[in-house]
Amino acid sequence: MNIEIITIGDEILIGQVVDTNSAWMGTELNKVGFEVSRITSISDDREAIAGALHESLSRVPCVLMTGGLGPTRDDITKHVLCDFFNTRLVFNEQVYSDVETLLKGRVGHINELNRSQAMVPEGCTVIRNPVGTAPVMWFERDGGVVVSMPGVPSEMKHAMIHEVIGRLQQRFHTDHILHKTVHIFQIPEAVLAEMLSDWEDAIPPFIKVAYLPQPGRIRLRLTARGSDAGVMQRAINQAVDALQPIVGRYIFGYDDDSIEKRLGEMLVARGQTLATAESCTGGAIGAAITSVPGSSAYYNGGVVAYGNEVKHEVLGVSTNDLNIYGAVSEPVVSAMARGVQRLMRTHWGVATSGVAGPSGGTPEKPVGTVWIAVCNPQGQVNAQKFAFGPFRDRTVLRSVDMALMMLMNELLDDK
């Protein structure tokens, strides 16, 4: 069954606040068989809110709204809902008691603005909010359902988890929806689609396939919808198994797996260790690796060698290479990888050196130029040059991704 989400707030439209609510709601709703068919963000404007609500209800039987339920003048959602459902605000003793309990000890007294939170549209079902002052309001009319929730993420999530999702499941019938995501690297999207053409033809028609590309990798998402969850799960499992002879080497994980998690599993299985030497990435590779619990079992540490003195004195990069080739070069990044491997006494060494920008580029080495090196247990180095473009944040992120993918590829090749 389809649901639409309406998020309310000028702060979303001007980019001051990122709408993370909708993404989280979409994920949780999909888990229980609801499909979000549209997300609309609108300003704190009466006509905009009423218009969006009218349009959404003309398409779907259920609309979830967040935002505009605070006590200040710009919070007008309750007033719009009163007009929309032809009702009025009335005082709710239970909500007021909840507000008093929540604010006791935080403020000296309950003022009129706080008291206004207990004014709710007459006729709606009020759902108590134990973590905030604005209650959730559930409306029904002509078979349609509108649920208005606070825009504060923690309050919205509490309401969804403890009340709203369960009530929606009781109110509406849904099919089962099952997902399986396969993480694939080193194959371009168009090439992968060609490789999987026969595989797509062979899988059951109730399984939909989506290609979700990211730099250097693709998430292949399989989605099945139907009434028999067991049949669907078996079909998805068989489809995933059928991928192995085609692209098995390039699969690094499933669902919530990450490349850094998979790398850790591979290193632990081999009893091997890793160290990093980072210049332009400034420790971001180490941060990604240590984001995985238990990474101390295989990650010995890293050196942020931003300056040439550190490259020379700590990692052993020769001043001759630094002077002749410059810090952003194959000889230097290779020496960094060998140096940190030796310094940390690890099996593997990974190094980066580049021009992240926005300044510092030259015609020979423009902003976005990055060298990445991986040194294997035999002391052999694979160093590659990349051009990631003029944006600093993107260059750092792409460098981290590529360094991890290069390491994974080397691990797969190293027997």
TrEMBL record:
Coiled coil: none annotated. Residues 4-171 form the MoaB/Mog domain. It comes from Breznakibacter xylanolyticus. It comes from the Bacteria. This is CinA-like protein. Transmembrane segments: none annotated. It holds the Pfam family MoCF_biosynth. The lineage of its organism: Bacteria, Pseudomonadati, Bacteroidota, Bacteroidia, Marinilabiliales. Belongs to the CinA family. InterPro entries: CinA, CinA-like_C, CinA_C, CinA_KH, Competence-induced_CinA, MoaB/Mog-like_dom_sf, MoaB/Mog_dom.
